[in-house]
Specification:
9 strands, two-stranded antiparallel sheet, single chain, alpha+beta, 5 helices, about 30% helix, about 20% strand
């Protein structure tokens, strides 16, 4: 997920197998040649009401999850519904896989239903082809392909 901070710097929050849950700037991404791990990626703007409350919720969520491990649990992939998959549950987790992290952020700010586990959202769930329905008036913009050249 790409975010913009108060200084208008681009930031990434993601969960990777080698770093776990981390947030870093675009400058760091380029400086450390993190793009070497990607052939390409897709940027898809999220259009929603960026209220102070939602931005604060994202910030509080980040504080709780930064440093957690990358964790893909096959059993959780099989469990679609949960009455325990709430903001409180996030504090009890000890890891996320990539799209599960993004789904959890969307749930925290009310854009995805809380009764469906975040682990049910796979990377393709956020593509234009998936027709993912967001809540509270949120929608996705068009996809933009970003290709990285290997040096």
């Amino acid at each position: 997920m790409i975010l913009k901070n108060v200084k208008s710097e681009l930031l990434f929050i993601e969960a990777t197998s080698n770093q776990g849950v981390a947030i870093y700037s675009w400058k760091t991404f380029i400086k450390h040649k993190c793009y070497q791990y990607y052939e390409k990626t897709v940027y898809r703007p999220l259009i929603f009401a960026r209220t102070y409350e939602r931005l604060l919720q994202i910030q509080e969520f980040q504080k709780k999850v930064i440093g957690m491990k990358y964790k893909l649990n096959p059993l959780r992939l099989l469990q679609k519904y949960s009455d325990n998959d709430s903001v409180r549950f996030v504090a009890e987790k000890n890891g996320f896989f990539c799209s599960e992290l993004i789904a959890a952020i969307f749930k925290v700010i009310g854009l995805l239903p809380r009764h469906i586990r975040s682990s049910q959202y796979l990377p393709g769930s956020f593509s234009a082809e998936s027709n993912l329905e967001l809540q509270n008036g949120a929608e996705f913009g068009n996809e933009h392909l970003i290709e990285f050249t290997k040096n």
